[in-house]
Amino acid sequence: MAANIGVATEMIDRPSQYTRETLVEQILWLIKIRLVVVPGIIIAGLMSSYVFPVLTNVAPIYLCAGILFLFNVGYFWGAPKKVADARPKETILAMVQAKMDLVILTAVLHFSGGVIKPFFSYLSSHHSNDDTAQKSIIYCRID
After folding, report:
1. Spatial CB neighbours of 57, under 8 Å, sequence gap ≥ 6
2. Cα–Cα dist 30/23, whole Å
3. pLDDT digits 0-9 by tens, 53-102
4. Domain for residue 112, yes or no?
5. How far apart are CA 84 and CA 91, in angstroms?
6. For 13, 30, 137, 140, which has the most beta carbons within 10 A of its beta carbon?
7. What pLDDT shows up at residue 140?
8. What angle in degrees, to the nearest 10, is found between the helix axes of 17-46 and 89-111?
9. Which domain holds residue 10?
10. In a domain, 143, yes or no
11. Backbone φ/ψ region at 140: left (φ over 0), alpha (ψ -120 to 50), beta
12. Per-residue pLDDT reduced to its tens digit, 102-128
């Protein structure tokens, strides 16, 4: 009985190649999503200053979009291009992506005026997605 528990524990502690491949797919998917988010932030900034003049200074929001774009280029450079190239470092890359997305989102929220301005709705949706990503990353630990 104890031998069976040891084998089961060993299997749980080691992330499978399948789990890493799934994580790589998710990382590449998030990189593609950011390619839509960056122009979305810029368009929302333009609309918030010209169409609905609720923001007086949009430059910090554009700066956040630029930083997000640069991080996305870095993520693309660091991510494996093929699912078969999955390695343990992808777990770290996924965690960095989730945290940096939250930092950028918080900065955009701050510079847009806080909870009473147009970007607030993004924060609540990102928290639920970030929590899900963290839970999936916990199961895919580094060797």
Report:
1. 111
2. 10
3. 888 889 999 999 999 999 999 999 988 777 666 677 777 888 888 899 98
4. yes
5. 15
6. 30
7. 45
8. 20
9. 2-138
10. no
11. beta
12. 899 889 888 887 767 655 666 665 555
In-domain check, residue 107: yes
CA 4 to mean position of chain CA atoms: 38
The three-state DSSP-derived secondary structure of the chain is: CHHHHHHHHHHHHCCCHHHHHHHHHHHHHHHHHHHHHHHHHHHHHHHHHHHCCCCCCCHHHHHHHHHHHHHHHHHHHHCCCCHHHCCCHHHHHHHHHHHHHHHHHHHHHHHCCHHHCCCHHHHHHHHHHHHHHHHHHHCCCCC
d(C-alpha 116, C-alpha 29), whole Å: 31
In angstroms, how far is the first alpha carbon of the chain from the final one? 26
Place of tokens 């609309």: 47
**Number of compact structural domains in the chain:** 1
Among residues 17, 1, 21, the alpha carbon closest in space to that of 9 is found at: 1
